[in-house]
Specification:
Layout lengths: L1 H8 L11 E5 L2 E5 L4 E4 L1 H13 L9 E4 L5 H5 L6
Antiparallel strand pairs: 1-2, 3-4
Length: about 80
């Protein structure tokens, strides 16, 4: 039940990273910026919840980890040639 409620509450936070990309527009390369993703460490989050409940607190910290995109805008900016 805990896992289900936490997943529902963090739906807007937890996301996969998105790689930067490049497209050609009006004869020029346009770089679309990457997006950092976030994952939730459910075991640590539950441990934080358990400690908060035992201490009589009503709030606890989520253990969220950043996931960087594999390809960044810097990588895409290096593209200079049309294939």
């Amino acid at each position: 039940k805990f896992k289900k409620n936490v997943k529902k509450a963090t739906k807007k936070i937890v996301s996969e990273p998105r790689n930067a990309s490049v497209k050609r527009k009006a004869g020029k390369f346009v770089v679309i910026k990457e997006k950092t993703g976030y994952t939730l460490n459910m075991n640590e989050t539950f441990a934080n919840f358990k400690k908060a409940v035992e201490a009589g607190k009503h709030q606890f910290e989520l253990d969220v980890v950043k996931k960087k995109a594999k390809y960044t805008s810097k990588d895409m900016a290096e593209i200079k040639d049309v294939l």
